[in-house]
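Input C-alpha cells:
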C-alpha cells in the first residue's frame, strides 16, 4: 500500500509547460512537497518492514492497528498535493501536519499492539526501547500544526527537520534480529 501511495504521488506531478528553467518555477512547490512526502512514506515503509519482520505473530488487534496506520498513510498523497498546489498556504500546511501526526500516533499504536502481544522481554521490545524518535516526532507535529497559521514556512521547516531526523538510520531492530 505504501508503494501505491508513492506511485500516486508521482503520477500527480505535472510536466512543466515549456522547456526552460522559468517553466519549472510554478511546479517547484509541488516537487518539494513530493520529495518531502516521498521521504515520509519511505521512512514508514522501511520502519514498518523492519518492525513486522521482527514480529513473530499477529492478532486481530495488530491487524486493525496496521489498517489504522495505512489509512493515514493513504492520505499523504492528497495532503502533499494540496500543500504543493496551494504554495504552502496555512490551512493545507496545518492539515498536512495533522495527517503526519495521526500517522505517527497510528504507528505508535501499532507498536504498542505488537509489544502487548509479544511481551516486554521480546526481541522487538528490546529493539524498540522507549521509542523516543516516534514520540519526539509526534510532539514536533503538535507544535508545527498551530504554527502553520502563524508561518507555514516554520511548520514546513519542522516537517523537514523530522524527515531528516528519520533519515538517520536506526539499526536497533536489525541488530536485535541478528
Amino acid at each position: 500500500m505504501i508503494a501505491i501511495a508513492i506511485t500516486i504521488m508521482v503520477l500527480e506531478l505535472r510536466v512543466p509547460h515549456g522547456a526552460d528553467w522559468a517553466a519549472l518555477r510554478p511546479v517547484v512547490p509541488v516537487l518539494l512537497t513530493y520529495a518531502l512526502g516521498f521521504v515520509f512514506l519511505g521512512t514508514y515503509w522501511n520502519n514498518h518492514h523492519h518492525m513486522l519482520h521482527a514480529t513473530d505473530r499477529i492478532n486481530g488487534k495488530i491487524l486493525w492497528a496496521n489498517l489504522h496506520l495505512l489509512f493515514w498513510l493513504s492520505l499523504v498523497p492528497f495532503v502533499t498535493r494540496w500543500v504543493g498546489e496551494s504554495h504552502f498556504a496555512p490551512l493545507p500546511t496545518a492539515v498536512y501536519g495533522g495527517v503526519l501526526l495521526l500517522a505517527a500516533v497510528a504507528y505508535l499504536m501499532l507498536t504498542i499492539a505488537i509489544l502487548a502481544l509479544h511481551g516486554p522481554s521480546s526481541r522487538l521490545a528490546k529493539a524498540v526501547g522507549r521509542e523516543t524518535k516516534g514520540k519526539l516526532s509526534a510532539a514536533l507535529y503538535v507544535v508545527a500544526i498551530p504554527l502553520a497559521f502563524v508561518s507555514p514556512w516554520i511548520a514546513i521547516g519542522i516537517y523537514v527537520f523530522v524527515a531528516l531526523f528519520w533519515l538517520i538510520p536506526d539499526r536497533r531492530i536489525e541488530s536485535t534480529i541478528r
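The mean pLDDT is 89. Residues 2-177 form one domain.
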